[in-house]
Amino acid sequence: MSRPSTVTRPAPTGTFALWGDLADPVTLSVARLRRDWEQHRAEVVFDCATSGPQRHTFAGPLLREVVAATLPRFAPLRRKERSRFLLAVSGGDGHHTVLSWAEIDADFGNAPVLLATRMDDHDLDEAGTQLVVPSDRCGARYVSAVTGIWLGRHTREGVHPAGV
What we know:
- This protein is mainly β.
- The chain is built from four helices and eleven strands; from the N terminus they run ββαββααββαβββββ.
- The strands form three sheets. It has a five-stranded mixed β-sheet.
- Strand 8 (118-119) and strand 9 form a beta hairpin.
- The radius of gyration is 16 Å and the shape is globular.
- The two termini are 27 Å apart.
């Protein structure tokens, strides 16, 4: 099983690595996200702790569709197996967040989480893709300049027995 690790060399500007429990790990660019996947729009308002309410329009592919193209190593028809997977997202500014596969899976939460290629009608090729969680009231899980996305299975390691 692979684990998130520290990236030792920076990815080229506007690209990010997608790795982990995948048959086809890949490095993707904003331009490729725009070219190879359907673009969805999301008009969002979220509260920023430092600068108050933020209003933006984002466009980009759904995170679940991009990850699915890399062939996650779970049985697609086994819901309980899929629900064990986590996504760890890292940004160029050191910001990190975690989502569950079930959160974005159409059979579970069906959250329309985007990997934005455009923000307020401006391309993000130079700045890098942005993780957008339209259902969040605060912007803490929005990650700018995504540098990596790791997909992996939650294991029972470190789980305490009931009653402890």
